[in-house]
Every structure is written in C-alpha cells, then in structure tokens.
Sequence to fold (307 residues):
Amino acid sequence: MIYTVTLNPSIDYIVEVENLKIGHLNRVKDDARFPGGKGINVSRVLKRLNVKSKALGFIGGFTGEFISDFLRKEDVETDFTRVRGESRINIKLKTGTETEINGNGPEISSENYQDLLNKIKKLKKNDILVLSGSIPKSMPAGFYEQVTEFCGNNNIKAVVDTSGSGLLNAVKHRPFLIKPNHHELGELFSEEIDSSEKAAFYGKQLAQAGAQHVIVSMAGEGAVLCTESKTYKANVPKGSVVNSTGAGDSVVAGFIGKYVTAGMLDAFKYSLAAGSATAFSSDLCRQGDIGNLLGDIEIEEMKGGLL
Fold:
C-alpha cells in the first residue's frame, strides 16, 4: 500500500487575469480550484495511473471539507487528521508570468501530531510512505527524519521530497527515494548545478550517504538517476510549459507507481514522462498523456568520475 503525507494541505485557487494592473480593479478571465499539497498531488496522480494510495495529513474548517470532498469525488482514499482552524488557500495568479501567494496553515496541536504518528506506525513491511512538502512551524522540525528512521527500522519504503537540512537528515536512514531539483541539490552542497555531470556527482554523494534512489530534476535539461553503484541521465520531452505546479510530484508518483510492476529504469522513464505531461497541461497528468511522451525519452548510463 502507498501512503502520502501532506502536512499543510491547501485549496489552490488558480486565477487568470489579462494585463494585471496593480492598484486598479481587475477582472478574472478564468479561475479554478483544486486541492493542493505535494502529497495530495502524488495521490491524485497515482489514482489516474490506477494505483491505490491513501492520503494522510491535517485538514480543518470549510476549506478542509472542500479538500476532502474533492478527493472523495476523484475516488482518492483519505484518512486525514482533523484540526482546529482552517486549511489554507494558495493563490496561483497567472498574468503573463506565474505568481504564487501562499496562505498560512492552521496550528497543529500535540494531540493532532500524535494522531498522525499513530497512523504511520500502523504501516506494514514493504508499504511505501511519501513525505513531501514543508513542515508547519507548529510541528517538530525533525518530523521527516523521525518518520524516515521509523520506516528504515521497519522495512517500509520512505520517499522524501523536501529540501535543506530536512532532506540531509533523512538521507542517513536509507529512504527509498529522494527527488531534489538542481537548485535544491546545489543548496545542499553550496554549488551551482548547471550540468548533468554535476547533478550526477552530487546526487551520487546522497546515494552513497544512504538514499537508495536519487532523482535530480533539471527542468528542460532532463534528469539524473543515481544509486550507490549506478548513474543514469535522461532527456525530457520537448513541449510548451503551461503549469509547473505538481510536475515534481508527478515525477514521484510516476516512479513509485511504475516501480511496483516494472524495473528501475522503466520507472525512471515513466516518472519523467509523468512530470512532463503535467507541465504541458493545465492540470495533473493523465495516463494517456504519459504514454504519448514515453517514446521521446532516452536513458543512458553515465560512466567515469562524472566531474
């Protein structure tokens, strides 16, 4: 079973405005509302791939009800912990360029926190747990490390998609997959990652430190997959980027969704097609869109010192 954790879900309110004028009345050309949050995105994509998952996390108020109802209509299984306060609303403003305004989430009490931990502790051997996104300020900063350690001790496959010290601290507990982009990888090592060779060199260090699979995404420049013993690079399909929100989450969903029935390299190719399919559409990818892009992706093994 695959479980996803979204600690700070949202309603993503997507607003399109032509010729935005600051300080003036502007009319909305088009708008849409979706449940937001990286783990939720992973669960939504998995459902479209006919892979079962259960979404965990915290929701509250009428905004939380919207998130829960929306996922129920999409037949995504959930087991959220209810909190006091309102789940946040994030505004995605499209007006030539994309601007995001993210709201503040609700306070997470110690009782809420313990309830989520109790649910995670019920996971079984070979289950997959996806931990992604930011950690609310009212929660312990070491939450991802704590849960990744628990997973490592109980043969549960942890997927960690975060950045900074939270990612580094989780790596030593042998997560099944981590997915930093090239900016996040560069921040970890105080380096500019501007080539697949650099991405492979530093991604390999994370694999040797404990991560079983490391995918480093580099936007239009492709991606690199590192394990302790192997390194691969791949291109991504050409296309017009319509929406960057959820592309990285689609990479995660594509990899773990395909890995359960295919090999590592097939999962890698599928993950890149999924991420691209999301980037090329106004919503999260669908299975048919992914299939149309698979033939455009080529993977090759990288040899030598990489730098």
